[in-house]
Write a structure and sequence with these properties.
The protein is of the alpha+beta class. The chain has a single domain (2-86), classed as RelE-like (YaeB-like fold), CATH 3.30.2310.20. 35% of the residues lie in helices and 24% in strands. It has a 4-stranded mixed beta sheet with strand order 1-4-3-2. A hairpin with a 3-residue loop joins strand 3 and strand 4 (78-86). Helix 1 runs antiparallel to helix 2.
Length: 105
């Protein structure tokens, strides 16, 4: 199955690779290698990550690659990697559906 990156995930990959390259070239190469291996495995085994029940939309999955959390969803035509973040970073802001019931009393 085809694996696509959301703009947010693609931007994170670029920023993290640049950050690591500036500080530790071996870590940057390991990061790129690990992400590439993950994408290859994900294409063959889309359901390898458990569902992430704490995310605001159903069906999203999470997989841990080293120190990184990767959230993705499985579509009919492709798998979309939604976000990538280091485990020590704050979770990204995720838009909620318009019908989410979080109104103040």
């Amino acid at each position: 199955m085809k694996v696509l990156f959301s703009p947010r995930a693609r931007d994170y990959l670029r920023q993290e690779a640049t950050y690591l390259t500036d500080r530790n070239r071996a870590a940057a190469e390991r990061f790129r290698h690990d992400i590439n291996q993950f994408v290859k495995a994900l294409a063959q085994f889309p359901a390898m990550g458990p569902e992430a029940a704490d995310l605001p939309f159903p069906g999203a999955r999470r997989f841990v690659v080293g120190d990184y959390l990767i959230h993705y969803e499985i579509g009919e035509a492709a798998i979309v990697i939604l976000t990538i973040r280091h485990g020590r970073e704050r979770p990204p802001e995720m838009p909620l559906d318009d019908d989410a019931d979080f109104e103040a009393p």
